[in-house]
Design a protein that fits this description.
By secondary structure, the chain is an all-alpha fold. Helices cover about 70% and strands about 0% of the residues. It contains eleven helices and no strands.
Length: about 260
């Protein structure tokens, strides 16, 4: 049953899990690469100013399939399941992909344009043109934004305040161009509300949730009782085996017959 549930969940959000699989493969490449090869791959697949000027379409596409630190893959997997998978199941793969693409591309281009202006005004060093700018966080921020419209009222406003605070606090406390990109991507996700107009929000039924909780508690009690009975049966079997072993040890044994000696 658990395997069937996992299979159904993956089939309901194929784009999310294909994307996650590709990120897992590229993370393994980064983890197994030498230091020099790692630096080359990270810079070559970045959507920084230098790469955008040389091959804009390629850098915008490829940069969305890499993460800087392979050790953070597990965290991204959890975030993908929480946000991307839910948005894709709710809106459908095509609309979800539209939200993610708009957030990733627009946030990248706008944040890099802001960085270019900072370089031209000598507010940032020229080496920032070659900064490593890869990752999936802009698309993730867009998914966080559009998921707001699935949360039912009044919880929707609490979710929105939490999302805005999460991305605004780094921006207001000396954030980088990446923090600007995250804020832009969140706003773009919120701007995609028209894609959600014919999609219902989550339905919260307190009575149904209470019944489900009671059923889960009953199932847990039955499982605990079955476990106690199994443990008692195991103890009885162990006691019987111990008694049998003792009775065999204490029983008189047959006299051993000596083997005949060979004569020469």
């Amino acid at each position: 049953m658990v395997v069937d549930g996992i299979r159904s969940w993956v089939r309901s959000s194929p784009g999310t899990h294909i994307w996650l699989l590709i990120i897992g493969i590229t993370s393994l490449v980064i983890a197994s690469a030498s230091e020099g090869l790692e630096a080359f791959l990270l810079h070559r697949t970045s959507s920084n100013i230098h790469e955008l000027n040389k091959h804009p379409l390629e850098s915008l596409l490829i940069s969305g399939f890499w993460i800087v630190s392979p050790s953070s893959f597990a965290l991204y997997a959890v975030l993908f399941e929480l946000f991307h998978a839910n948005v894709e199941r709710w809106l459908g793969t095509l609309r979800w992909l539209c939200v993610v693409a708009v957030a990733h591309v627009a946030a990248t281009l706008i944040s890099q344009q802001i960085l270019l202006r900072a370089i031209e005004s000598h507010s940032a060093p020229r080496s920032m043109k070659h900064v490593v700018d890869i990752g999936v966080s802009y698309g993730l921020a867009g998914a966080v934004g559009v998921l707001t419209y699935r949360v039912p009222r009044p919880w929707r406003w609490l979710y929105l305040v939490g999302a805005v605070a999460f991305f605004a606090v780094p921006l207001l406390t000396g954030g980088t161009f990446t923090d600007i990109g995250h804020a832009i991507a969140l706003g773009l996700g919120l701007a995609c509300w028209s894609l959600t107009r014919d999609r219902p929000p989550w339905r919260w039924d307190p009575g149904r949730a209470r019944r489900a909780a009671l059923e889960a508690a009953g199932t847990a009690r039955q499982a605990a009782e079955a476990a106690r009975q199994a443990a008692g049966t195991a103890r009885q079997a162990a006691g019987a085996a111990k008694d049998a072993a003792l009775s065999r040890r204490d029983a008189p044994g047959r006299p051993r017959s000596r083997p005949p000696r060979s004569r020469r």
